[in-house]
Each structure stands twice: as structure tokens, then as C-alpha cells.
TrEMBL record:
Residues 189-341 form the AAA+ ATPase domain. The keyword ATP-binding applies. Keywords: ATP-binding, Meiosis, Nucleotide-binding. It comes from the Eukaryota. GO terms for cellular component: chromosome; nucleus. GO terms for biological process: meiotic recombination checkpoint signaling; reciprocal meiotic recombination. Residues 117-137 are annotated as: Disordered. Coiled coil: none annotated. This is AAA+ ATPase domain-containing protein. SMART domains: AAA. GO terms for molecular function: ATP binding; ATP hydrolysis activity.
Amino acid sequence: MRLTHAPALAVEVRLKPTSTMRYDLIRRLMSQHLDAEYETLLTHSEVHDWRDVAVLAQNVDRVWIGECSTSLSSSPRRDLLGSLTHPYRRPRTALATSAVPLDAVSLHLHVYQPPSSSRVTEFSTSPHNDDDGDSDVPAASVLELPSLSLEGVWDTLIYDGDVKGKLLNYIYSTMLFSDALVDFNIVTWNRVVLLHGPPGTGKTSLCRSLAQKLAIRLSDRYASGKLIEINSHSLFSKWFSESGKLVQRLFAQVTDMVDDESSFVVVLIDEVESLTAARAGAMSGKEPSDALRVVNALLTQLDKLKTRKNCLVMTTSNLTGAIDNAFIDRADIKQYIGLPPAAAVYWILKSCLNEIMRAGLIPPVALHEYKALEVLESTGGAGAQDADEETRCSELLFSLANQCQQGLSGRTLRRLPVLAHARHIAVSFASSARPRLATWLEAMRKTVEEEGREMDRVEGAV
């Protein structure tokens, strides 16, 4: 028996582009299959044995078990990632998995069907052309959601604390208040989120993947989703008094998209400090008054969007001190996104190395999970003589991850293998050689030290 008010376990069911079956039928068949075949499911993992059901195999492309709204665990009665006839497949996610008993949760199946190709359209708001005849920079781009280009990004992002859960809960809360017809004049919210922190920490990726996740999770309410990315720099015109009009024309097009209540729209304003810093400069007399008009117009348009329950505004900033107080006051959530912690660094580097192994540049080695290495480290390690190659390399990567934390951004970490190869492997090995993983890890360690010295020189020069 399921509990009456059971915690929710999210299940995402992606359909093939060719499927024409109704979502409610897919939802019912998949629910019946999971109930019949499993006593427990593993969160943040993929299941595969639905392919044994002919109708599901013909229509479904992927089934992903998401998060559970509470912490429940149990021992599975069998392999949770596939049937007895399918090989074990390790979850490709940075998130901790846990076994959840199905009789203690309510399955929330989210069925969605992304198009076979990701469609991105751009539009401009300026009536003027540059002197050389070229058109102005597009004011915004629009991506139809769900998009295959963003599939799986959400699960590769890891932060200190439950940042992603906090964002999802915020959206669910605004939906609840809107559906309950809470008087907006008494209890108010702005549907604006501000992510701030140093460059390269995944703020923009988090915004895009959240938009993708919402398009999936809200598929029973909205037929589709849209991600509108606004180019902040395009909102300033060289034509006097034109900038405020650009903002109005831009948001007129945004409003047209929001007017379609069958679609959930996420508006992303990257590097929003370029707008708010200009407003501060205009008020102090350091910038032209036109800069003040553009930001005032932007704030006015954001105020108009806050009553639209099918719209969310996401913003990012690398310079916290440059963000204007009037904008900060409009953000319901102000979330700092810092440099990746050691566990995230380990997962990022591990995913990079696994990809290089897949490409055949390194002989394959099964690296351990970070938490298992934490336990091993606390007991004194395995010992260089007794450890096998998998454990030795995992311990080297564990040490490297702790060396990198609080110093390198995710963007820098993902280019580390290329730099390591160029500086320390290409000069020592023939192009056809496949150095072992330990050699790569040593090269990456040296590269991290070199990058640290370069950063010290740059900071010293500044």
C-alpha cells in the first residue's frame, strides 16, 4: 500500500521524436511496469528494463529516476539500474544516489518529447544598422525546450549545499501560491533569481539546465518551454535616447511569448552587472543619462512580468559589488555560486578522464567514488605496495582534487587534460602511444602547479 501523503519520487520519461502515443498512456504503462518490477529504485540513475515491454520500447527513449522529496533508503531486491538480462550501467551523475522503497513514495512521472534537433532563433530590436551595413548584435536568442542539447547537464552540476533543490522548491512554491489564488497585493513575489559568484563556476549552465528541468517537470501543465537569453550589451544603443526603447521593444517580444499560456518561459540575463553598474554610474554622473533610462526600463518590465505564472527570470553576475540595490531587492533568491568543492572537482576530473578513456587515449581504469576514497583516507589509505591500479589512481585523483579545490573554476578544470597533454605528455610520448592513467594524473598535477604560479604572476602584475 502506498502512503496517502507519500513523498514524491520524480521519474522523467523521454519519448522518441517519432512517438505519437498519448502522454497519459505512456505514464500509466511506465507506472505499472515500475510497480510490477521493482520494490526499490535508485535516485539519480537510469533504468533500462522497460525495453522488455514492446510498447514502451517502441515509444520511449530514456527513463531517468530523479530526486526524492525526502530521505528514504532500503536494500534493493535486484539490480536497480537494469533487468537481469541487461548489463549493469553506472549512473553518469555527480549526485549521490540512494535506494528508495516504492511503497513509501508517490511516483511523479514526467513525460516529455524533445524535438529531434535543437532550434535556436535570434531576434534584434534595433531599427538601425551599423555604418558598414552590418546588422546590430542580436538582442536575444530563443531555444525551444526541452532540448537534447541540454539533456543531462543538470545532473553534472554539483555545488556546496542543496542549491538545485532550493531552486526547484522555489518554483513549486510560486506555482502553489498562484494556483491557490493568493492575493498578490498582500503576499508578493517577483519570479526573479540572481546567481552570483566568480567566473567559471557554472552559473549560466545552472540557469540553462534549470530551464530544461522545468520544461520537463512542468510538462503536465505546459506543452512546451522556451529559454530566452538576453544579450545585455545589445540593450545599449549608440543612438541617443534609443536604449530605453530597445528594452521596451525587446520585452514586448518576450511578453508576446509569455502570452502563450501553454508554454513556460525562462528569461536569462547573463552578466546583469553590465546593466546595474551602468545605472549606478549614470546616477553619479559618470555615465550618460541614457544608461539610466535603459535600466529603469528593464526594472519596469521585470515588474510587469512578475504576475505571469508561466515566466521565470534568471540572472547571473560575476561582480557582486556592481549590482544595483534596486535590482537586488527584486530578486526572490540571491544565491552565491562559489568555486567547486573537492567532491565536485573529483567528479569533474573523473568525468574528463573517463571520456579520454572512452576515446582510447588512456587504457581503461575503473576509478572509485569520492566518498569511498574519503573513508579510505580516514583509515590511512590502501598503501602503495598493496593497492591495485584502480585504487592507486583513484587516490592520486583524490589528492589532485583536494589540491585544486578553492583555486580553479570548473571551466579551467575541464581544459586541464588538454593542457597536461600539451605540456607534459606530447613531448615525451609518440603520438600513437597510450600512457597509463598514472602518467596523466602526474602531468595534470604539474599543470595545476604551473597554473597556480601563472595566476600568482597575473595577480602580482595587477
